[in-house]
Specification:
alpha/beta, Aspartate Aminotransferase, domain 2, Aspartate Aminotransferase, domain 1, seven-stranded mixed sheet, four-stranded mixed sheet, binds pyridoxal-5'-phosphate
Length: about 425
């Protein structure tokens, strides 16, 4: 092969090794061109739910291509999108009655932010301030970086990012601080909305907080007419143990973003669900109140067919039981690191398990990530620590034996970290 022309995402080409070429995927594995099977312990960046290439999703995609490809979604509609929208309304927390399609998690969040500002403006009382949670991640576009944690990942673009108000992460024992700050920030009724990753802050380091904080945030938001936006791009589709994480808090957000697991991880698709009140704010004979947003590939029929197949799998197979079983295994297996001096903050949320490596030396973090990745890869395991946070977020088809391999490797990797 000639020199690659590919510029990879989140990749420092100057220091990182040439990536293996993947030729095949199946179940919990991705397989290289030379036949090496790699256990995908991070669900290919959190998108794969049931496993790679679930036969029903593959079949649905194949069938859809027999009759449809992209169809403009303004002025026309199609059955896969209509059916999927109805199914999403049925599955989501009750009260989310409208579905706006797009094609990535970031875009679904951009849509949510625009809906929130449009809602207030169209109702005659414009608001533009957004409240966000410390350590959040909502995507890599300018708008989503603006509502996310500022740091090395977006320092270069800081002049383009808009200002937001930030509430502290509700760390154990400090939940009230978060709620008090939120109350103070919204009391004046000027915040357009608050956006949070419910229960788990993913890219921020798999930080977990209790459902009751979410319940309280929603209650406080309601008092001031602050719209509550749940970014369930990562947490949706069973990841935290329930279909959507918001269910555990017993809340219906005003806006909910879903993407990663929506098609089971097969093809890109996203949706932003909204309440009837938000739709009605944009429903008018005044055309200036139209919701002005579109992606070229909005509601791609093939992607919608894949998502419908995913919904079918949730209905017809025992996915809920599988998710419960995996959640239990994760909690049991990661418990071996409790009281181990090399680790701290052993935690799980549904199918996600995470632990922090205790690292001594300053500046060390820059080294440990790539080094550990290489260590895992050598053993045929795809694990990508976030700084010193090692997490396992496998597809739901992973077996107990495969988890044991992973936890043994994490144990070994901690030795590697110790030796620098
Ligand atoms: C991944 C992620 C996004 C961005 O999704 P993309 O499809 O990568 O644009 C947004 N929010 C959360 C919580 C995510 O984990």
């Amino acid at each position: 092969m000639n020199r690659s022309a590919v510029w990879h995402p989140f990749t420092q080409h100057a220091t990182e090794p040439v990536p293996p070429v993947i030729a095949r995927t199946e179940g919990a594995y991705v397989e290289t061109t030379d036949g090496k099977r790699i256990l995908d312990a991070i669900s290919s960046w959190w998108v794969i739910t049931h496993g790679h290439r679930h036969p029903k999703i593959v079949e649905a995609i194949r069938n859809a291509t027999e009759t449809l490809d992209q169809v403009i979604f303004a002025g026309l509609t199609h059955e896969p999108a209509e059916k999927l929208a109805s199914a999403l309304v049925e599955m989501a927390p009750s009260g989310l009655d409208w579905v706006f399609f797009s094609d990535s998690g970031s875009t679904s969040v951009e849509v949510a932010l625009k809906m929130a500002l449009g809602f207030h403006r169209n109702n005659g009382s414009p608001r533009s301030r957004l409240v966000v949670m410390e350590h959040s991640y909502h995507g890599d576009t300018i708008g989503t970086m603006s509502v996310g944690e500022r740091g090395v990942f977006n320092a270069a673009y800081d002049p383009l990012l808009f200002e937001v108000d930030t509430i502290p992460f509700p760390a154990a024992g400090r939940e009230q601080e978060t709620l008090d700050r939120f109350e103070a920030l919204t009391r004046d009724g000027k915040a357009a909305g608050v956006i949070v990753e419910p229960l788990v802050l993913g890219a921020g380091g798999m930080l977990i907080y209790p459902a009751r904080v979410l319940t309280e945030l929603k209650r406080i938001a309601e008092k001031s007419g602050t719209l509550f936006i749940a970014d369930e791009v990562m947490t949706g589709w069973g990841r935290t143990g329930t279909m959507f994480a918001c269910e555990q808090a017993g809340i219906t957000p005003d806006i909910l973003c879903t993407s990663k697991g929506l098609t089971g991880g097969s093809v890109p698709l996203a949706a932003t669900l909204a309440t009837d009140a938000i739709f009605r704010a944009h429903f008018s004979t005044d055309r200036a109140k139209t919701f002005f947003h579109s992606s070229s590939y909005t509601a791609n029929p093939i992607a919608c067919a894949a998502a419908l197949a995913n919904v079918g799998i949730w209905r017809d197979e025992s996915v809920t039981e599988r998710v419960a079983a995996l959640s239990k295994m994760q909690a049991e297996k990661i418990a071996r690191f409790n009281g181990d001096a090399r680790f701290e903050n052993v935690r799980t949320a549904g199918t996600i398990a995470a632990v922090d490596l205790r690292v001594g030396k300053a500046g060390y973090l820059a080294e440990v990530g790539p080094k550990m990745r290489a260590f895992f890869l050598e053993r045929g395991l795809l694990v990508r620590p976030l700084g010193n946070v090692v997490y396992l977020l496998p597809p739901y088809c992973v077996t107990a034996a495969e988890l044991d391999r992973l936890y043994d490797a994490v144990d070994e990797a901690a030795e590697l970290a110790k030796s620098g």
